[in-house]
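In this supplementary section we document a worked example of the pipeline. Step one takes a protein sequence of length 446 as its only input; no multiple sequence alignment statistics are reported here. Step two produces a three-dimensional model, which step three serialises into structure tokens for compact storage. The input and output of this example are shown verbatim.
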Amino acid sequence: MSARTSILPGRYEAPRLVGRGGMGEIYMARDLVLGRTVAVKLLAERFAEEPELRERFRREALAAARLSDEPHVVTIFDVGDHKGRPFTVMEYLPGGTLAERARSRPVPPELAVTWLAQAAAALDAAHTRGVVHRDVKPANMLFDGSDRLQVVDFGIARLVDETAGMTLTGTILGTAGYLAPEQARGEEATAASDRYALGVVAYELLTGGRPFQGGSETAEAVAHINEPVPPASERTVGLPPEVDAVFARALAKSPVHRFSTATLFVEALRDALAGTAQPPPARGRRRLVPLVFAGALLLAAGGVTAAIVAARADDGPPAAAPPRETVTREVTVEGGPTTVMQTVSTPAAVSVEQAAELNDEAFGLMREGLWEDALPLLERAVPALEGTYSDSFRYEAYAEYNLGRTLAALDRCREARGHLERSKRLQGNRQEIKEAKRLCAPGQRA
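The serialised model returned by step three reads:
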């Protein structure tokens, strides 16, 4: 038996080298027991000499194997050790890599979204089980015989990262073009880091290039930390400007500003490309009659009483009110010596991430002409986003515009102008802002 055929256990016949990676080699072989072609990843000989590394390789392989029942995750058949070299046996994927299919040219948006949705399903499933990939990139996305995308190499990047003696000062771990800012700074990778990398993959599929491509790997990694996201709509003819807001969130410098799942990111991207928006959750798609308040302030024996009457549509129960918090404050009633305590109920504060989601939901309502429904969402989002604007996270400008546009549609032009001006100061006088202002021009609206 030749050296080439003895590197794997006897059940794996005629192994043929098909690739090399940072940790070892990949062989294609015939599994005589199961009667099928498989791919075998073998730890490099120079690393197999380290007992701790051998054990870590095995542990990471077992963690990845537990994901094998999830959709769009490569199936792992066997994990073992042969002549002191650990190996992992997985399904052979003959369709090539995503990197090969999308090399330096844009992919049709519909096809790109299909592939991204499959990758997102794999990543979300892994994150639910506490597994972080750490090296999401087109080369780690392969196609099976039915042209379905499968994500491979879960845990391998972590293995490289933790291997003693493999890094030198100034070395950037992982693949520089897809590194989340926190990874580029040497911090721990999280599920949000994987979602950032998927955003880079999406940008590359739609524009034909990564957002910070060019120069050295080190320069590209540093750009992920410091540089604003170039608008994707300006890179490729035919991409609507709505995709820029989606990428601004997907590639936000701070993990807390990104989408909470990979699937939510892909859904937002699909809607932006199609010029539509997902229906807001638990609100239905009906037009609601705005609340009408009738208040009477009664001053009697130093007390304050307020009556509020609300009218709603007859086509079903009203949407759930936003969370509220109760604040008690001291009020002096004009014209009288008595000081009373007044309880006021106001919408509860929201986080920046929640505010971004409120803005997205409101934008979908605006597209349907449901201005009254969009208004309360934007009134909650805008204050929470105040002071957060940056070239890499532009939601404050978008929310200010959306609120101004909504107020203009509701004939509240005096209020609308202020929000449109704030949006202009943040992001420049874009065409959408000009058009919204024209709605409030003399002769157009009161």
